[in-house]
């Protein structure tokens, strides 16, 4: 039956989403300009090698984003609690003949470590070589297309100190099952606000994920295996490795709409991995099925799902949060 109020409500939501997207795009341009100036003129160290937490931030990038990855790195160097190291992993084959942007060279002088890697492992380059080099450090993986708020690291470390045996993240989804079968990725409870640690929380690397030494299964660096099972889904592989180790994950509590404080670098989405992962064959669903089935993870997860209440979805999944309270301009 036709419901005019439902049609009006959907139209209102579309207008709200469009207004929010425009506001965030404006904020991203302003923030990117600020960070570009800081990367060009700041001379202060961007890392704290003697920090007691021994935290290493690791990321990679692709050729089309090389000129702007300094913006993400600068947002990491401007954290209220700085990491011991920031490592940018670049595969040697792709970048061997590329001249590094001056902004990255300046950041090297402030503590950025650029690690030229033997092979291109796709998104797995983000963590693989850093984990090899610094196996005893806390590892924070981030994406190369985000401008992170200045308390991103501090909030993760507070959560880690409270529960050091848990993987903490700023953004995650709640895995869901139906009749014992895992549901498609797009039917999960996105952006869960669950406050307790659970094996059903699936961290998404875009928000920053903090891994502690010893949280991974022994296969974590088996590049032949992850290239076979989930070549373009590092989040899937790392989640499987923590599940196989019996480690739960938890979303850091927040009282704001996530994307209002984690802005996207303007123009960075022209080449986006998430678009490729929407396809059935190479996408998340196929890679999740192959990887989780290989390690025998689906049956225990289905049992966990039956035993616990369903994860609570975030407000931003079901609609647009009103432009009050949690919707704030970046500080």
From TrEMBL:
One of its GO terms (molecular function) is transferase activity. Keywords: Transferase. This is Glycosyltransferase family 2 protein. It comes from the Bacteria. It comes from Parahaliea maris.
């Amino acid at each position: 039956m036709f419901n005019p109020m439902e049609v009006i409500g959907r139209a209102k939501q579309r207008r709200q989403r469009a207004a929010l997207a425009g506001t965030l795009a404006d904020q991203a341009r302003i923030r990117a300009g600020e960070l570009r100036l800081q990367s060009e003129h700041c001379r202060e160290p961007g890392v704290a090698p003697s920090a007691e937490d021994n935290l290493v931030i690791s990321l990679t990038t692709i050729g089309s984003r090389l000129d702007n990855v300094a913006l993400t790195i600068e947002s990491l160097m401007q954290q209220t609690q700085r990491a011991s190291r920031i490592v940018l992993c670049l595969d040697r084959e792709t970048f061997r003949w590329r001249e590094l942007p001056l902004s990255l060279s300046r950041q090297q002088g402030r503590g950025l470590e650029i690690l030229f890697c033997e092979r291109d492992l796709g998104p797995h380059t983000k963590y693989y070589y850093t984990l090899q080099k610094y196996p005893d450090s806390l590892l924070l993986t981030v994406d190369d297309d985000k401008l992170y708020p200045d308390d991103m690291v501090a909030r993760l470390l507070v959560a880690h100190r409270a529960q050091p045996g848990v993987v903490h993240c700023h953004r995650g989804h709640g895995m869901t099952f139906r009749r014992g079968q895992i549901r498609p990725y797009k039917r999960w409870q996105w952006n869960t606000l669950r406050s307790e640690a659970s094996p059903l929380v699936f961290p998404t690397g875009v928000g920053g994920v903090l891994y502690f030494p010893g949280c991974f299964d022994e296969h974590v660096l088996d590049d032949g295996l992850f290239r076979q099972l989930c070549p373009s889904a590092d989040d899937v592989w790392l989640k499987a490795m923590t599940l196989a180790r019996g480690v739960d994950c938890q979303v850091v509590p927040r009282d704001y709409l996530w994307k209002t404080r984690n802005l996207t670098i303007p123009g960075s989405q022209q080449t986006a991995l998430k678009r490729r992962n929407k396809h059935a064959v190479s996408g998340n669903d196929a890679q999740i099925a192959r990887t989780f089935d290989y390690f025998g993870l689906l049956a225990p997860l289905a049992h966990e799902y039956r035993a616990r209440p369903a994860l609570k979805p975030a407000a931003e999944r079901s609609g647009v949060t009103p432009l009050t309270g949690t919707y704030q301009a970046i500080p």
